[in-house]
Amino acid sequence: MQELLAQYQSVTAPEVLKWVNVGKAKDFPENGGACIKYKNKQIAVFNFARESTWYACQNLCPHKLEMVLSRGMIGDKEGIPKVACPMHKKTFSLKDGNNLNGEDYKIAVYPVKIEAENVYIGFID
Amino acid sequence: MKKIVVVGNGMVGYKFCEKLVTRPDRENYQIEVFGEEPSPAYDRVHLSEYFSEKGKDELLLASKSWYKDHEIKLRTSSLISEINTKEKEVITYKGEKISYDYLVLATGSSPFIPPIKGSEKAGVFVYRTTEDLDAIKTYAKKLQKSNKSKATVLGGGLLGLEAANAAKELGLETSVVEFAPRLMPRQLDEAASNTLIRKIENLGIKILINKATSEISGKEEIDALTFSDGSRHETNMLIISAGIRPRDELAKSGGLKTGERGGIFVNNKMETSATNVYAIGEAALYNNAIYGLVAPGYNMAEVAVSQICGGDKTMAAHIDMSTQLKLIGTDVASFGDPFIENEEVSAITYENKQSGIYKRINVSRDGKKLLGGILVGDASEYQNLFQIYINGMKLPENPEDLILGSRGGENSSLGSVTELLDSAQICSCEAISKGDICKPLEAGECCSMEDVVAKTKASTGCGGCKPMVTDLFNATMKSLGKEVKEVICEHFDFNRQELFDLVKINKVKDFDEALNLFGKGHGCEKCKPVLASIFASTTMETANKQVTIQDSNDKFLANIQRNGTYSIVPRIPGGEITPDKLMTIGAVAKKFDLYTKITGGQRIDLFGAELHQLPEIWKELIDAGFESGHAYGKSLRTVKSCVGSTWCRFGMHESVSFAIQIEERYRGLRSPHKLKGGVSGCIRECAEARGKDFGIIAVESGWNLYVCGNGGATPKHAILLAEGLDDETTIKYLDRFLMYYIRTAAPLMRTAPWLEKLDGGIAHLKKVVVEDSLGIAEDLEKEMQSLITNYECEWKQAIEDPEMMKRFKHFVNSDEGDDNISYVPLRDQKMPKAWT
């Protein structure tokens, strides 16, 4: 299971080697999330329509290792955009992937850009 | 910079770190901590909860990142095998040397294993670490597979009884063997012990006192205990909890002074016999005694921190050993000197064998001072008594009022928390006084209960003082003229009832509008489902309308399971189903390879459906005439029924017909929490209706209506609201009751706790529902009727609309399912594969 977790490492925008088109913006629910597949990875993509911002992170919840984060509720904690895992409501910052309940594990986050109604996610592989 | 090495990362070792990092001169010290267990310090006081509810993470006092953030080098699974006080260094089991300026020994204790023949046999355990608990659990499972189920705990002290409860929770037939003539011999007198024994035996745990164990017999595995009186006690497992022994071996081999019967000698500064070496917690021998409680240990940690940093804190000469806890569901408390009785001190006792309550207070003959006492079965007066004892407060004119309550007078003899002195100690684990709690509130540094707990750490130890801290918080806020209210979350400064009214009066259409009008920020996983529930309860909108504010399960109209797949529960009103429909369920389950199980609510649950399969499965179910069972929602679940007068020879009325009528009436009704009902055809109560939010029981004259019962974690029998009703009146009262609950309850509050909090309780509820004392009955009925009229099956709605269907796809950019799911066989069906 460690291998599964190790697949996901945060990427920052300047590091991106490849922007991958993962679908039309309208395919993602407003103020909600959906999951996309890239190679072996499952990536959760969130559309914060209220502030016209997008975030992406691993779909794998590091707590019990299930592919579920895209199905979680989103919102903010004191201004930090976050997702709550649907399994046990562990919450993670979508800015840096840190767990917001003060626990050890964190998630990998990926940059998102929107161009001509298409959603792109930045990878380094 | 000075280097501090801490050996031991248990509760006290952690407390030392916690106290040290809050000091202003923190940066003068470098800290390195060695822990022998693989995990950082966890809450051993609540160890038995590790079995029942809490995982290891939840028991942790602080995560590994806490140590990192505070620049503490924590090395777990690292045993120190030697200390050299001359060279001022410690040596790890791998031979690595680490030098120190200050050394703190927080090595704790180990369980004492009495020298009984046979204690090496398989099936003999101790009860100290989560690893011990894991081993006990594994062994218990093994036993149960071979149909063995007897467990025995050796030792009837505090920890022994906790262990017995844990063994019982594992489904084992449990006994406790105690050498002394009574349980908890350090805390309880004989009468108290007898009361406790009766309580515990009622719960199915056998107690054997006055038994000295002479041998543990069995081939390789334990099969019995032999006692010194020659009698034999069969058992398949033994958990030894016969006291603790301080872990002083490291100190001893390092040349430190230790006690004859163990323990590292310390003075009131926690200094050992070696310079700059301190010992704290259960390893320390102070005043010729070892203290196995967390409060003195925490106190020692604080003293050691102060001394190292040049402060002047010292340990008090007398250490208070008062305890209050819930043992196997029974309140037990003991404070001060529980046994004292002589020419100057008399004991006042109260015993009620009927309800299993024993109380004792030891009062000076002049009636001025409280010196100690014992409470079993009802410890609600503990905090007050403890305050009076510890602060030497004046007693009421009739000291017996303290345990019997003031009889006849207007005022409570105990006074309120506000009358306590500022110096009165409230939280003894953290040594927090009343002033420590109230002053930050008065100064405006803290505004909420969470702030108070975060700042003072009060109630974070054993948690016994929590009600008192809450009372103090509320009283202080009130005296400051501030209203204390429970708001939903940081985004809405309202409670649920206020938000309900705001949404209704302003005809708010959706979450965004509510947020713009009454909230701030972007919402979260707390406020979104609350508003979703409010919209559903005011307009009957389904979960398809505002999908992204729905709680995880409502969002996909199914219940998420351990591996991220879903379970499906079609509605089977009243539990009545035709053979044809039963076959449809079977066929669907077979086709999609679903694990099937009958639920507690007389329905059938189908497990293991992947997200993208849900619509396909539901299409088949709907075509066969099924509709959503709303098992995923905070909404009406089932109305359980017994077969009633149509078939049963005892039945008084048609319970199945009535159950179906009621279930169909309220199907899809969303509420602050789930709702369950039951209808029984006679007082034999086969539908267990009184364990439900509403229960209807047939009697000669009609139906008796009971409300606010609960199964689950805190079982509660429903209470009679009205009796001898006809069908129509029953439904009318139910409409009013349910709607009143939906309007006023807090989020996720079932009807039973709602009634408990309702001002005036059941008498008030009767007035509102039956007598219409608030004049809202007509409104309540109208609101309910409009919800009923607007009901629509949300699964049918979803599969008929391609736009709504879009969400039931695992990937936006691929039609594949989740390839991360795998199963293992289970009794001719399947279950999710566990992570290894």
UniProtKB/TrEMBL annotation, chain A:
The lineage of its organism: Bacteria, Pseudomonadati, Bacteroidota, Flavobacteriia, Flavobacteriales. This is Nitrite reductase (NADH) small subunit. InterPro entries: NasD-like, Rieske-like_NirD, Rieske_2Fe-2S, Rieske_2Fe-2S_sf. Pfam families: Rieske_2. GO terms for molecular function: 2 iron, 2 sulfur cluster binding; metal ion binding; nitrite reductase [NAD(P)H] activity. The keyword Transcription regulation does not apply. NCBIfam families: nirD_assim_sml (TIGR02378). GO terms for biological process: nitrate assimilation. Residues 20-121 form the Rieske domain. Keywords: 2Fe-2S, Heme, Iron, Iron-sulfur, Metal-binding, Nitrate assimilation, Oxidoreductase.
TrEMBL record, chain B:
Residues 322-385 form the NADH-rubredoxin oxidoreductase C-terminal domain. InterPro entries: BFD-like_2Fe2S-bd_dom (IPR007419), BFD-like_2Fe2S-bd_dom_sf (IPR041854), FAD/NAD-bd_sf (IPR036188), FAD/NAD-binding_dom (IPR023753), FAD/NAD-linked_Rdtase_dimer_sf (IPR016156), NasD-like (IPR052034), NiRdtase/SiRdtase_haem-b_fer (IPR005117), Nit/Sulf_reduc_fer-like_dom_sf (IPR036136). Residues 561-622 form the Nitrite/Sulfite reductase ferredoxin-like domain. Its cofactor is [4Fe-4S] cluster; [2Fe-2S] cluster; FAD; siroheme. Residues 426-474 form the BFD-like [2Fe-2S]-binding domain. GO terms for biological process: nitrate assimilation. The keyword Iron-sulfur applies. Residues 633-772 form the Nitrite/sulphite reductase 4Fe-4S domain. Binds 1 [4Fe-4S] cluster per subunit. [4Fe-4S] cluster binds at C642, C648, C682, C686. Residues 3-305 form the FAD/NAD(P)-binding domain. Pathway: Nitrogen metabolism; nitrate reduction (assimilation). GO terms for molecular function: 2 iron, 2 sulfur cluster binding; 4 iron, 4 sulfur cluster binding; flavin adenine dinucleotide binding; heme binding; metal ion binding; NADP binding; nitrite reductase activity. It holds the Pfam family Pyr_redox_2. Keywords: 2Fe-2S, 4Fe-4S, FAD, Flavoprotein, Heme, Iron, Iron-sulfur, Metal-binding, Nitrate assimilation, Oxidoreductase. Siroheme binds at C686. Belongs to the nitrite and sulfite reductase 4Fe-4S domain family. This is Nitrite reductase (NADH) large subunit.
